[in-house]
Amino acid sequence: MRKIGAVSACAVLALFASSMFMANANEPTAEVDVSKLSCAVNPKQKAKAANAADYKGGKVYTCCGGCLAKFKGDSAKYATFANHQLVASKQFKQVKCPISGGKVNASKSTKVGGVSVGFCCGNCLAKVEKAGDLKAQATLVFADKAFKKGFVTTAKKK
User: Fold this and answer.
1) What is the pLDDT of residues 70-124, one digit of tens each?
2) Is residue 26, in this structure, part of any structural domain at all?
3) Is residue 118 part of a domain?
4) Could you give the C-alpha distances from 62 to 30, 35, 68, in angstroms and in order?
5) How far apart are CA 57 and CA 55, in angstroms?
6) Among candidates 109, 63, 106, 115, which has minimal Cα distance to 86?
7) How far is CA 76 from CA 28, 79, 95, in A?
8) 9 lies in some domain
9) How many structural domains is the chain composed of?
């Protein structure tokens, strides 16, 4: 009888701990530090908090009102760097390989525009590393199709 009680108590504690973890898994991260972000339209410029647009349940920032208007006018055109910014600002997190959609291997990672990105295998990693410049690498990792495969929001579910 004691054994059953101890096992039951452990099961209840495990259930409680996992429910607490899952409750915190969707908690929003700390406030976005815009000073560390590049403009979603012109990545060579620094983003400013005053130039924000709602995007995919988060906020995307641009450097000026002109870029903000461009983003709002055609967000699909700027999706790659907007998605990059969502990850850089911790509004989204990586859960799978953005190339294959497979499980991430912690030893297969690289930085793309300052954001650490993990891959399932050396082939996916090599594909991104061989892509060359930031735009080509970001397109492989953060374009909408890849973004949907590998990243999820960190915002609290309602």
Assistant:
1) 999 999 999 999 999 999 999 999 999 999 999 999 999 999 999 999 999 999 9
2) no
3) yes
4) 20, 11, 6
5) 5
6) 115
7) 24, 5, 23
8) no
9) 1
